[in-house]
Structure formats: structure tokens, C-alpha cells
């Protein structure tokens, strides 16, 4: 199993996540110690648990954490692209090109993948859980100054998240670049984003021409609450980030102001947004269920 140092390495953060933040997922690796004969000695090895499911996926992190607390031979993450703890985003590196050849076509990669699949008792049809997305043979990255985004209107002290889907034409796949910062006590925030969403043709010679394109502007969220009146209150906005700001051809910051919206938690009001007061955060109970990805 992989430890957190593997996921914090620059290689993994680039090749696996394309510089995006990667949260821990409710995926647990489970094992049981078994005694096996090795020559004339008996040794203890980590084996498949009695239920035959080495990898277990839960509906929430609280459920995964509860399982691990009650099972000393298990851990959250540590397999495939799934870390045990959150991995922060890179601010100054972006993917600009991938090879059309997939690593899946390489015999050495296939052998390592099959070895890992057998180790974790993963069924062949679910072996893709072990792969980065996409597993291109070669990926090319560029270091950029990044665009500065300055915002306001977030819930004071909340985590502010920016997300944009980036399309990779060579592999016909899309990944979401995600970054998170914390708003100050006035609901203001600043972040540096390495992927543009517009203006790709506006920069001149001397700058990298990337084939990757964002499919929409960044969605920016700055806190969510459920108030006593049964409304979900969120702070949201969108921002287009020009290529010129990403590559340093322009030092003009991108300004965004989040708006507060509220919708009924249990339907009603025809789905219309409204503004409510007396916001108080509450949490819904987790559903006690699991499913296997093996």
C-alpha cells in the first residue's frame, strides 16, 4: 500500500491529478494477517479479509473513519489514485499536452497493474480503480505564473473552492481542476489559478499553445449552511480566467463577487432561490451502507 508521501510527491500531483487538489475519498483498504509457510519458516503476511473484499467504498468519510477505528488492519486510501489525506492543489503547473498512446498498451504497466489487482483482490472489470485518469504514456506540463483571482462575498472564514472541467482532446477525457483557499473574516479571498477558461488565441508568439480547453468558467463556492428554516444557504459565483493572465502576459487580477442563494432543503418553492436570515449550520445523519468496488 502507498503512504501519504507518495501522494504528496510532485510526480503524483502532476501525473495523477494534473495539479488539482485531491480530497481523501471514503475508500478503505482492508486486510487480515495470515500465516504462510515460507521454506522451513512460518511467516505472517497481509492477506485478503474473510469477506473477500480488500477495497471497500463507503457513502461518507464518517462511515469510512468509523470502520477503520473498529478494524486495526485497515486504512483509508493508499491504493491507486486515492490518498489517505487531502492533497493540496498546485498553483503554478498546468497540463498542456498528452500523448495519444496510453500506458495501458505497455507490457510493463500491464504487469504492474495485474500484480496490484491480484494483491488487492480486485475483479478484472474493476481494475481501472488503480489507474490515474487518463493513464497517458507521456504528459507534458508547463510552469506558469498563474492568474490571480480576488473575490468577496464568501461566508467569513469558510473554505472557498474553485472548480473548472478541462477537456483533453488527445484522450477524449475531462478532468476537473480544483483549488481551495480560506476566506478571511470579511469573506474576502485570493487564489492563483494555473488553467485558463478563455482567451486562448489572444496571446502572441513566445507562449505555449495548449490543446487543452476549459468547458466552462470556474464555479466558485464560498461556504454552505442549512438554517433553522430548512433552507440551504450557499455563496456562489463564476469567473472566467483569461490565458493572458495565466501565462503572465497580463497582471490584471480577475475580480469575482459571490452571491448568497437559498433553496428549500426538502423541496417546495418550485426550486426558486431566495434570501433568508438566521443561518445556522446543521449536519444530516450519514447513511449506514457500503458497497464494494472490487
Short characterization:
This protein is mostly beta strands and 294 residues long.
Order of H and E elements:
HHEEEEHEEHEEEEEEEEHEEE
Structural class: mainly beta
Fraction of residues in helix: 10-25%
Low-confidence stretches: 271-294
Tell how many strands the DSSP assignment holds.
Answer: 17
Provide mean pLDDT, rounded: 84
Helical stretch tally: 5
**Number of structurally distinct domains:** 2
> End-to-end span in angstroms?
16 Å
Oligomer: single chain
What is the 3D shape? globular
Largest sheet: 6 strands, antiparallel
Beta-strand content estimate: 25-35%
- Supply Rg: 22 Å
Description of the molecule:
- The longest helix has 13 residues, at 107-119.
- The strands form five sheets. Strands 9, 10, 12, 13, 14 and 16 form a six-stranded antiparallel β-sheet that branches. A four-stranded antiparallel β-sheet has the order 5-1-4-17.
- The protein contains five helices and 17 strands.
- It starts with a helix and ends with a strand.
- The protein has two domains: 4-140, no CATH class; 148-271, Immunoglobulin-like (Sandwich).
- The chain has helices spanning 4-8, 10-15, 61-69, 107-119, 243-247, and strands at 27-30, 32-38, 41-47, 55-58, 74-76, 93-98, 139-143, 147-152, 159-168, 173-182, 189-193, 213-214, 218-226, 231-239, 254-257, 259-264, 290-292.
- The chain is mainly β and 294 residues long.
